[in-house]
Amino acid sequence: MKVNGTTTATSPWRLRTALWASEQLSGQLAQTLPRPRDFADAMTLVSPDAVADTIACGPDADRHAAKVEAYATHASTTSTSS
Fold this sequence. Notes:
The protein is mainly alpha-helical. The protein has one domain. The protein has 5 helices and 2 strands, in the order βααααβα. It has helices spanning 11-20, 29-32, 36-43, 48-54, 61-78; strands spanning 3-4, 56-57. It has a two-stranded parallel sheet with strand order 1-2. The chain is flat, with a radius of gyration of 15 Å.
């Protein structure tokens, strides 16, 4: 789970896309790219909106809380006990 609490108007969205766009690459693409240059090229396929939908960013505490709650709910429904 990724969050960014930067409070400026535009920088958190640029930072979020720069740091975490790779998590939105489809399938095994992120695991099969041989060079950093190829990885950078593939990340151009990821829109800032796709990243924005998955990573809470900015000063909105309710958005952060909702992402944490969704993460916790998903984790509790997918965990297995031995």
